[in-house]
Write a structure and sequence with these properties.
Blueprint (H helix, E strand, L loop, with lengths): L2 E4 L2 E4 L10 H5 L2 E9 L2 E3 L1 H14 L8 H14 L5 E8 L16 E7 L6 H6 L1 E5 L20 H12 L4 E5 L5 E4 L3 E6 L2 E4 L10 H12 L3 E4 L4 H5 L3 E6 L3 E8 L2 E2 L7 H13 L4 E3 L3
Parallel strand pairs: 7-8, 7-14, 11-12
Antiparallel strand pairs: 1-2, 1-6, 3-4, 3-5, 4-16, 5-6, 8-9, 10-11, 10-13, 13-14, 14-15
The chain binds 3-[O-phosphonopyridoxyl]--amino-benzoic acid (PXG).
The site of 3-[O-phosphonopyridoxyl]--amino-benzoic acid has 15 residues, from helix 6 and strand 13.
């Protein structure tokens, strides 16, 4: 059976229900995290929790569990579902209220933890790289709905995914309102040019990816020149390598962008090296559930 953590209780998947008056459902009023478990290790648990609590503070949502209680709930949910390698979706909504927008009508937030087996990209995808496009849908502007907040407002991302689907590809890039490359619908982007590794700075209007941060660390540890600076689609097209990073994607190469073949048209050497180094740390840096 699959057990869902719902407000302090574990309930069967079929019984895991929330009210239609939940403001996460009605208005996307809430925040979430996607976290991976590798060999019983909740990878980068602290970083995910920090981002979650920062997002909650930013939207003035009070999470009814302390940091330690939340971490215990995550551990319990992984154990209860006997997950060794899998994926945690942690969802905090404003809670059940009335039909008005006012968060003050939601006395307590709803806390949901879903733990599942993982469906990931094929090893072939990692070697061949993905074919992607850029789309007309721009990233939310930071002073309207800050992309640094991993909120339940994912329609911006869904619209990008729809355009990717229509283009027959698996992922698509968003620009920001100034025309600089922001990120993919569910991942951050890096380009490699003449040995230099570049990723957009977080002020560009993108989620501060935890995988992105891990890759920057790995680059520094391995003597790569890595910079956080804005770039355009032109820079992507003429790059030697392009790759995307995310909890689900890990480090996945891009072989073609808007019809332009990137490098040799497959995962580049630096991309493959970074993926190898990334996979060395995923069962270490985090919270060990079973040890
Ligand atoms: C908009 C956006 N940008 C970047 C990332 C990568 O951030 P992390 O390196 O911290 O994960 C995300 C996160 N995207 C994400 C996280 C978990 C699962 C899935 C999925 O596609 O199922 C997507 C995201 O949603």
């Amino acid at each position: 059976a699959q057990w869902i953590y719902l407000n302090g209780e574990f309930v069967n998947k079929e019984d895991a229900k929330i009210s239609v008056y939940d403001h996460g459902y009605l208005y996307g009023d809430g925040i979430f995290e996607g976290i991976r478990v590798y060999e019983g290790n909740i990878f980068k648990c602290k970083e995910h929790m920090d981002r979650l609590y920062d997002g909650a503070k930013s939207i003035m949502l009070e999470i009814p569990l302390s940091y330690d209680e939340m971490q215990e709930a995550l551990i319990e949910a992984v154990k209860k579902n006997e997950i060794i390698d899998g994926y945690i979706r942690l969802v905090i909504s404003r809670g059940t209220g009335d039909l008005g927008l006012d968060p003050r009508r939601c006395p307590v937030a709803n806390v949901i933890i879903i733990v599942e087996q993982l469906s990931i990209y094929s090893e072939e995808d990692y070697v061949n790289g993905l074919k992607i496009v850029s789309v007309s849908t721009r990233r939310n502007i930071p002073d309207a709905m800050n992309p640094k907040i991993k909120s339940l407002n994912y329609l911006n991302n869904v619209l990008v995914k729809i355009q990717a689907n229509l283009a027959g590809v698996g992922e698509a890039l968003m620009l920001n309102s100034d025309g600089f490359v922001a990120e993919g619908s569910g991942d951050n982007i890096f380009i490699v040019k003449d040995g230099m590794i570049i990723t957009p700075p977080s002020y560009i209007g993108a989620l501060e990816g935890i995988t992105r941060a891990a890759i920057i660390d790995i680059c520094n540890q391995h003597g790569y020149v890595v910079k956080e600076q804005p770039f355009t689609l032109h820079d992507v097209y003429v790059a030697d390598e392009v790759f995307l990073t995310g909890t689900a994607a890990e480090v996945i190469a891009t072989r073609e962008v808007d019809g332009r073949i990137i490098g040799e048209g497959k995962a580049g050497p630096i991309t493959m090296h970074l993926l190898k180094e990334f996979r060395k740390i995923v069962n270490k840096d985090g919270v060990q559930v079973y040890k």
